[in-house]
Amino acid sequence: YGTTYGQHGHGGRIDSNLITNSFSYNMYAYYTDVSSISHNRILARQYDGYNYFYGIYTYYCNVDSVVGNYIDAYRDYIANTHNPIRLNYCNYGTYTNNPKKVCIVANNELRSKGLNGYVYGLYVGYGNFKVYHNSVYVDCPYNYSYCIYAYTDSGYLIDIRNNNVFLFGTGANAYPIYANSSSKTLVQFSHNNIYRPSGNIAYVGAALANLKAFQAYDVDASSVYPEFLDFSKDMSQFKLADGVNVLYKKNETNGLFQLTFNYNYGIADNPAGNYAEAAEKYGTLYFSLSMPRPT
Asked: Which in 160, 162, 201, 207 has the greatest CB count within 10 A?
């Protein structure tokens, strides 16, 4: 925790913590240098609903990466603003004395339910961001509810790709993805899956009514209802060897089987933890093979 742009705190890393039942702020950094905020599990409080919820909140901070966090704020009784992840003025030159480094925001899973709107699942504003491979679920029937909210500024770029976002709600001013600008020098999109049962599907400088309109900015965008599995109920599991787990689902449709190898990469390839150098490496590689079932 620092005091001004000339007096930053040095927080190092905030990794692999379990945080539960905080009043409003679970993790808050102000004028602080943090190399990583990653692999944390944050669960919203169980009682006292009429207050705000912030999962991870940074303000005027230098942050290299926010990766692999799980934040569950899906509660029926938190009435005010939800912010599972809010990164404001991140690596922003004016306030952080930072030469516009990129903050990697990747592989986070966020769940939120709002009772009166003002739900920002993943908020990134004023800075260079790569927003990759995040899953964001927001359930709110009111206005001002967003899965990914990106606020750009001149000289900075927010790159949003390969995210899976789901907004359940009918508010006229609510969007699965919101970006204040349509300029490709400020915000870019690629291969995002956006699903909303009804209502505008995105806002990119202006409201976009459907997938076709959004594909003017993200040509490979899709709108597929994601199937959420409970592995303990929907998948068979066994261990092939130490460190090699197998998940199995029988194909009830035809005689094909599919074998998929998932290889998580980025951190293991870079054990020193310099996530900025691995900016393009985060995610999971999927190797799949389909063929007739052996007889």
From this structure: 160
Please state, in angstroms and rounded to a whole number, the distance separating the CA atoms of residues 271 and 252.
Answer: 42
CB atoms within 10 A of CB 283: 15
Among 53, 129, 142, 117, smallest CA distance to 87 is for: 129
Model confidence pLDDT, tens digit, residues 216-246: 999 999 999 867 666 677 777 778 777 777 7
Candidates 10, 119, 133; CA nearest to 66 is 133
Residues whose CB falls within 8 Å of the CB of residue 292, separated by 6 or more in sequence, listed in order: 255, 256, 257
Confidence tier at 170 by pLDDT (50, 70, 90)? confident
Specify the pLDDT at position 187. Answer: 97
For the chain, the first-to-last Cα distance in angstroms comes to 63
Q: Which of 212, 175, 179 is nearest to 196 (CA)?
A: 175
Which of 10, 17, 22 shows the shortest CA–CA distance to 73?
22
Report the 10 Å Cβ neighbour count for 197.
10
Instruction: Kindly state the average pLDDT of the residues 33-48.
Output: 88
